[in-house]
Design brief:
The complex is a heterodimer of chains A (about 425) and B (about 325).
Chain A (H helix, E strand, L loop, with lengths): L1 H7 L6 H24 L3 H27 L7 H21 L8 H20 L4 H21 L1 H4 L5 E2 L16 H24 L1 H11 L1 H7 L3 H27 L1 E2 L6 H14 L6 H19 L3 H15 L3 H8 L1 H6 L2 H34 L6 E4 L2 E4 L3 H38 L5
Antiparallel strand pairs in A: 1-2, 3-4
Helix pairs in contact in A: 2-8, 3-8, 3-11, 3-12, 3-13, 4-5, 4-11, 5-11, 8-11, 9-10, 9-11, 12-13, 17-18
Chain B lengths: L1 H32 L6 H18 L2 H27 L4 H23 L15 E5 L2 E4 H23 L1 H11 L1 H6 L4 H23 L9 H16 L4 H19 L5 H5 L6 H4 L2 H5 L9 H12 L11
Antiparallel strand pairs in B: 1-2
Classes of the chains: A mainly alpha (about 425), B mainly alpha (about 325).
Chain lengths: ~425, ~325
């Protein structure tokens, strides 16, 4: 008997492993505390706040997509409802002078998300796979359209606003300056990330993975996949509600865009681009996508097109997302064969960059001729100046695209070859993951 | 009242037939490839914009022929060079690929034709009232739309029931793997089905473009309704999609033409709290909630018949 348990249960972690595990969280907390000291500009603080909200939202989405295998097109519903409830709560608290400080208010948003997820989830999670995706889309449209009809609660097109500084104060923080909001969001982000990580280690988290991989077997073991999906849906709704609440506190407004399809699409994008196979994936994705959307929108007017094309490229070529790409290199790194691939990487990089540059040049030139044909043909995109009407631009773009494509195909094939060699060499040395 | 019923029925059937033009392609693609094409409504939009551009250069009738061909060729290319590649990464990746595609197509259409509606006009030949019922003139173009969609419906029915390709497609609806095992060139059939499906959506776009608004958000407006049709009818069921299309077409058209509200129904008998607490729900008219009717229907169907009206397959 003791033999059986010792072989089934994982070994009790050693002290060094425990230190390593708790060390990561403590280091994260210290980094979060120190960040505003390093980047103290107002813009940086706003960006950090947005990233924090996006991290919670993306991780909550990954409870559905990555861990339970439920592709949702309407996750923003719980985010938005959390936001709206919190705005109403702030108004109600300050009107009635209730002794509830602002740092506790996001919990109201979380509970609102949980409530609506519990309400709508039972119907939605009856089916999985494609049917669930379509149902989530339908439910999201239902709520988003209703938001425009129920004007008293949702405030119509303009939305409703609140003043976050008029609440009950502790430690004399009024949460007016962005730095205080940053610390509020950072604290909640850390709490939520730890809670969601803990969730993946619970039996429920494991059953979610089982439902994702083999729902039929789960039924044979004696669980109801519908109930497991429903519970995962409720947890996802709860954390999405917290994210929405923080967003509402950050902007002091909630409008119907919070619930909309674009918001649902954005969280799907950032989660998938980050990588749904690892816990850290959505965090990477949230940071990457937030920074990308902020910087790209400065560089070009059609950043959403590039964003969409980038997403298509990730789905096509790197289904594991950015984290999946990085994790692919782990056996090579451990086996010490990474050096063999690097030259091929460099060789593949040049034509790929040329191809991308050619595409960007072509897109920007076409945009110049369709969107603002009368303007000065000397346009600037991504910091480069070029003349959109000169034939040389066209020739360069065409050359870059064609030559880049041909060369990229060749070099990527070589890279795949080198990769396979390096991987089998690493396997021979006994490193498999 | 009778006038309202007749006109709304005509409009509802028309809208339903348009929906079915798209839903049929979507259903067949889903049954065979196992992927719900999120970008299907985008091909409807592409059809409308291609139609607009071609009708500007060559006239409406060439547009009616060439815009769907162009969109269909584009669809086939998407299947051949995009989806087939992504297929290795699983169904979620396929669905997300079409989702990204829908996003990109909307952006591209905005870049080329702008965000505001384009001036896509009814061809002068068809710009006259077909008949007058009671006091309403019913436009001939709408009758033309109805005829085209019914003609395509009948043609599709004949192809599916009588031809060899139709037999294979029908077999793939219920036993997609068996068709592959029997040695048909599955890849080419997939490409063909995808191309024809998107071309049908584009036909709907060309004929609906002049009557409705041709704008870069038309895909985003219609897409969700299309998926509701497919889920309500039962994923993978063509007859189900037909019934659901007509049902949603009729429900939405009738809802738009009704002006009643709870306030009107109860009049002065309404409880006092209705004026304050439930003011929104109390005073909203049926016409105002018409846009959410399909989704309400979806939720109701899911509660009472999770498989959809005629659905049999789990996923």
């Amino acid at each position: 008997m003791s033999e059986l348990t010792s072989s089934v249960a994982p070994p009790y972690p050693a002290l060094s492993e425990k230190l390593k595990f708790y060390g990561i969280w403590i280091v994260t907390a210290l980094i979060l505390l120190a960040l505003p000291k390093v980047f103290s500009s107002g813009g940086a603080l706003t960006t950090f706040s947005l990233i924090g909200i996006s991290i919670i939202f993306s991780l909550s989405y990954n409870i559905l997509l990555g861990q339970t295998g439920l592709l949702s097109f309407g996750h923003a519903v719980y985010y938005g409802l959390g936001g709206f409830l919190v705005i109403h709560a702030i108004n109600m608290i300050s009107a009635n002078k209730l002794p509830i400080p602002l740092p506790l208010v996001p919990l109201i948003g979380g509970l609102a998300g949980l409530f609506f997820a519990a309400l709508l989830g039972w119907v939605s999670t009856q089916r999985s796979g494609t049917a669930f995706a379509m149902i989530s889309l339908g439910v999201a449209e239902l709520i988003a359209s209703s938001a425009l009809i129920l004007r008293t609660f949702f405030g119509g097109e303009a939305g409703i606003s609140a003043n976050r500084t008029k609440l009950f104060r502790v430690f004399d923080w009024n949460f007016g300056p962005q730095i205080q909001i940053y610390y509020l969001i950072a604290a909640w982000t850390l709490l939520a990330v730890i809670a969601m990580y803990a969730l993946t280690r619970t039996p429920l988290g494991r059953m979610c993975n089982a439902v994702r991989d083999n729902p039929e077997r789960v039924q044979f073991v004696g669980y109801d996949p519908h109930v497991v999906r429903y519970l995962a849906f409720c947890f996802a709704g709860f954390f999405a509600g917290i994210a929405g609440a923080l967003a509402a506190i950050n902007f002091e407004i909630a409008n119907s865009a919070y619930l909309g399809a674009l918001q649902s699409g954005t969280v799907l994008f950032s989660t998938y681009i980050g990588g749904i196979g690892y816990f850290i994936g959505p965090i990477v994705g949230a940071i990457f996508v937030t920074v990308l959307s902020l910087t790209l929108s400065d560089l070009t007017s059609v950043w959403q097109l590039y964003f969409g094309l980038f997403f298509i490229a990730v789905v096509t070529f790197a289904p594991g997302g950015l984290t999946g790409l990085l994790m692919m290199h782990r056996p090579l790194l451990k086996g010490g064969t990474l050096g063999k691939v690097l030259p091929s990487y460099l060789m593949a990089l040049v034509p790929t960059l040329a191809l991308v540059a050619g595409l960007v040049l072509a897109i920007e030139t076409i945009i110049h001729h369709t969107v603002n044909p009368g303007d000065d043909p000397n346009i600037k995109a991504f910091g480069m100046n070029f003349n959109a009407s000169s034939p040389i631009t066209w020739i360069i773009a065409l050359f870059l695209i064609v030559a880049g494509f041909v060369a990229a195909r060749l070099t990527w094939r070589r890279l795949a070859q080198a990769w396979d060699d390096a991987l089998s060499a690493a396997h021979e040395r006994g490193y498999h993951a | 009242m009778l006038e309202l019923i007749v006109i709304s029925t005509l409009n509802g059937v028309l809208f339903g037939m348009l929906l079915f033009l798209m839903a049929s392609g979507l259903t067949v693609i889903f049954s065979m490839l196992g992927v719900l094409n999120f970008a299907h409504a985008s091909f409807y939009m592409l059809g409308a914009f291609f139609g607009f551009q071609i009708s500007r250069w060559f006239g409406f009738w060439p547009a009616l022929l060439f815009a769907p061909l162009l969109a269909g060729a584009l669809g086939a290319a998407v299947e051949r060079f995009g989806l087939r590649r992504v297929h290795r990464n699983g169904h979620v990746a396929e669905l997300l690929f079409t989702f990204g595609l829908a996003f990109a197509i909307e952006e591209i259409v905005q870049i080329i034709w702008g965000k505001s509606p384009v001036d896509f006009r009814i061809p002068p030949v068809l710009d006259f009232p077909a008949f007058t019922i009671f006091s309403t003139n019913y436009p001939a173009y709408k009758m033309f739309m109805l005829l085209v969609s019914i003609a395509i419906f009948v043609g599709l029915l004949l192809v599916l029931k009588k031809s060899r390709v139709g037999l294979i497609v029908q077999a793939a609806l219920t036993h997609p793997h068996m068709v592959g095992h029997l040695g048909h060139n599955v890849g080419r059939i997939f490409m063909l089905v995808f191309g024809v499906g998107t071309a049908l959506a584009a036909v709907a776009g060309v004929i609906a473009g002049p009557a409705l608004v041709t704008q870069s958000n038309m895909a985003a407006l219609l897409g969700p309704i299309l998926f509701v049709v497919v889920v309500v009818g039962g994923l993978g069921s063509l007859p189900g999609a037909f019934i659901a299309s007509l049902l949603i077409g009729l429900v939405q058209t009738f809802a738009v033409s009704m002006n009643g509200s709870l306030e009107g129904a109860f009049g002065p008998l309404g409880p006092a709290y209705a004026q304050s607490w439930l003011a929104d729900i109390w005073s909203v008219t049926v016409a105002q909630i018409a846009p959410i009717m399909p989704y309400v229907l979806l939720v109701l169907i899911l509660i009472f018949r999770p498989m959809g009206l005629l659905g049999t397959r789990e996923t």
